[in-house]
Write a structure and sequence with these properties.
This is DUF1985 domain-containing protein. It contains eleven helices and eight strands. By secondary structure, it is α+β, with helices and mostly antiparallel strands. The strands form three sheets. It has a three-stranded antiparallel beta sheet with strand order 2-3-4. Strands 6-7-8 form a three-stranded antiparallel beta sheet, with no helix packed on it. The longest helix has 18 residues.
């Protein structure tokens, strides 16, 4: 099966991820003890396992995009590695993140309509609000601990899960969702979060100096499982290797030039 990007059309580029895991620590550290416990037991609680033990490798993601092949499933990304097809889809994303995979329209009736948080902290939401303004409201302007917690939840969504460009306005609807704490833990955060990530994984790679990944890119990459001791010859190369573990698991191993460790990710394969 042919790659979507031919070998002749591949090129090096500076690549970054807009996902900011430091926001998880920022929000947690700013809360009081009661709301810290609420946070780790909330719908975003499983994200905290990524907080300290994984560093994103955008070069790995960039290399994987060059291995993309046509996917027979509209919301999955397929790659050809070695002699096997491997894929990443919505089910993988929700299993890794712990986010609810439900349908957002099923919860519309539970979203508060009064836009209280927008009215109190962002002049009624009449103007676009940037992530930096949301961060400032969380850190410096919250009128009580419960509002700080709610603003923190919105900040996690915008900076860890949605993660568009810093100049992009936040989704104001999220302020209404987090204002209902009973709704927060059953709301289907998984679908919209995955859609932003899917956009980055499926967009056409153009020859520009810089590419940005949106969404929770860390879900595509697992932590370094163990250190290796490559030879000097191996240290001078940059390559991707794939191992098969029957019946439905593959491991992709990527080694960057001069890196003494390999970054590994488990994939369901077909």
């Amino acid at each position: 099966m042919a790659y979507l990007t031919s070998i002749e059309d591949r090129f090096d580029s500076r690549v970054t991820s807009r996902c900011n895991l430091q926001v998880l620590s920022l929000v947690y550290d700013k809360l009081d003890a009661e709301h810290k416990e609420l946070l780790v037991n909330s719908a975003f609680g499983d994200l905290y396992k990524f907080r300290d033990n994984i560093q994103i490798s955008c070069k790995l993601l960039h290399a994987l995009l060059y291995m993309r092949i046509k996917s027979p499933v509209h919301d999955e990304v397929w790659f050809r590695v070695g002699d096997a097809n491997v894929r990443f889809g919505f089910s993988d994303f929700t299993l890794i993140t712990g986010l609810n995979p439900g349908i957002e329209n099923d919860f519309v009736k539970d979203i508060p309509s009064d836009r209280r948080l927008a009215a109190e902290y962002f002049a009624g939401g009449k103007k676009a609000v940037k992530p930096s303004q949301l961060k400032a409201a969380f850190e410096h302007h919250a009128k009580n601990e419960e509002d700080r917690y709610k603003l923190g939840l919105a900040l996690i969504y915008e900076c860890v899960l949605r993660c568009k460009e810093p100049t992009t306005s936040i989704d104001m609807k999220i302020l209404q969702v987090v204002d209902n704490l009973d709704l927060v833990n059953k709301y289907p955060w998984g679908r919209s979060s995955y859609d932003y990530l899917l956009h980055s994984l499926t967009k056409t790679i153009t020859k520009v100096d810089h590419h940005s990944f949106w969404g929770f890119t860390h879900a595509v990459q697992n932590e370094v499982l163990f250190p290796l001791s490559p030879t000097q010859e191996e240290m001078e190369k940059e390559y991707v290797v794939m191992f098969r573990v029957p019946p439905r698991i593959s491991i992709i191993v990527w080694m960057s030039r001069g890196c003494p460790q390999m970054i590994m990710r488990w994939w369901k394969s077909r």
